[in-house]
UniProtKB/TrEMBL annotation:
Pfam families: Tectonin (PF19193). Coiled coil: none annotated. This is Fish-egg lectin-like isoform X2. InterPro entries: Beta-propeller_rpt_TECPR (IPR006624), Tectonin_beta-prop (IPR051513). Residues 1-17 form the signal peptide. Keywords: Lectin, Signal. It comes from the Eukaryota. PANTHER family: DYSFERLIN-RELATED, FISH-EGG LECTIN-LIKE ISOFORM X1-RELATED. Belongs to the tectonin family.
Length: 253
C-alpha cells in the first residue's frame, strides 16, 4: 500500500499551516515513537509501518503502544502483552489502556480507571509469563494516561486534565500529587520528546505549548483547527499522526 497524494490544510491560529497527508489504510488507534509507527484497526488487527507500507503483525489487540519501554499492548479482555523477540508475551496484570512513552517505564489504567505504572527494571527485564510484576498503584482515577521523559498526563471520566510531575525511570509514580490543568480532553498523548497533544469530545485537536522540564504543565492550549473530526493522535519526529472519527489516517507536518 502507498500513501495517497491528497494534502489537507491544518491551521494553528491564523499564522501556521501544516500539510496533512492522507495515509492508506484504516486504524482506530495509533502510537508513534523514535521513528516507529504501530496501530490497531476496528477488528483489533495489529499493524506497523515500514516505509510506505503497513505490515500486519500476528495477534489481536485493542490498544498498542511503542516507546522507550518497547512495544506493549492490551487485548479485548484487558490482558497485557509485550513484544519480545518478534512475538507477543503475556505480562501479569490487566489494563484497558497502556503507554510505553515514559523513559523505559510503562503506565496505564484498568477497567475501574485505577492508574498503574511499572518502573524501569521490571519493564525492561520482564519476558512475560506467570512471574509476578510489581505494578505501582497511583492515587486518583483516570480513563487515559500517557507519559513522556519528565511528566505524565491523563484525563478522567469527566474529561478533566491532570499532570503528574517528577516522574523518573525508577520512580514512575512521580510526586504522587496531581496538578489539574485547565481544559477538557477525552484522550491525551505525550511524545517521546515531551510534547503534549490531545483530542476533546467534539473531535478537536489541541497542542499544549510551553511544556519543558522546568515547566512540565506548560502554559497554553493551542487549537489545531482541522478539516476532519479526530479521535486519536500521536506525535513523533515532527509528524502529528491523526486518526479521524471515521478511522482515516493522516500524517501532518
Amino acid at each position: 500500500m502507498r500513501a495517497s497524494l491528497l494534502f489537507l490544510p491544518l491551521f494553528v491560529g491564523s499564522n501556521l499551516a501544516l500539510d496533512c497527508q492522507v495515509i492508506d489504510g484504516r486504524l482506530k488507534q495509533i502510537d508513534v515513537s523514535n521513528g516507529q509507527v504501530f496501530g490497531v484497526n476496528s477488528e483489533d488487527s495489529i499493524f506497523t509501518r515500514y516505509g510506505n507500507n503497513w505490515v500486519q503483525l500476528p495477534g489481536a489487540l485493542k490498544h498498542v503502544t511503542v516507546g522507550p519501554a518497547g512495544v506493549w499492548g492490551v487485548n479485548k479482555n484487558n490482558l497485557i502483552y509485550k513484544l519480545v523477540g518478534g512475538g507477543w508475551e503475556q505480562v501479569q496484570g490487566q489494563l484497558k489502556q497502556i503507554d510505553a512513552g515514559g523513559n523505559q517505564f510503562v503506565a496505564g489504567v484498568n477497567m475501574q480507571d485505577n492508574i498503574y505504572c511499572l518502573n524501569r527494571d521490571p519493564t525492561v527485564t520482564t519476558l512475560g509469563g506467570a512471574a509476578s510484576i510489581p505494578w505501582n498503584l497511583l492515587p486518583g482515577a483516570l480513563k487515559y494516561y500517557s507519559c513522556g521523559p519528565y511528566s505524565c498526563w491523563g484525563v478522567n471520566a469527566a474529561d478533566q486534565i491532570y499532570v503528574m510531575k517528577g516522574v523518573t525511570p525508577d520512580a514512575c509514580m512521580g510526586s504522587k500529587a496531581w496538578q489539574q490543568v485547565p481544559g477538557a480532553l477525552s484522550m491525551i498523548e505525550v511524545s517521546t520528546d515531551g510534547r503534549v497533544y490531545g483530542v476533546n469530545s467534539a473531535g478537536n485537536v489541541y497542542r499544549r505549548d510551553g511544556v519543558s522540564i522546568d515547566k512540565p504543565a506548560g502554559t497554553d492550549w493551542i487549537d489545531l483547527t482541522m478539516c476532519v473530526k479526530s479521535k486519536h493522535v500521536s506525535y513523533d519526529l515532527g509528524v502529528l499522526w491523526v486518526i479521524s472519527k471515521e478511522d482515516n489516517i493522516l500524517a501532518c507536518r
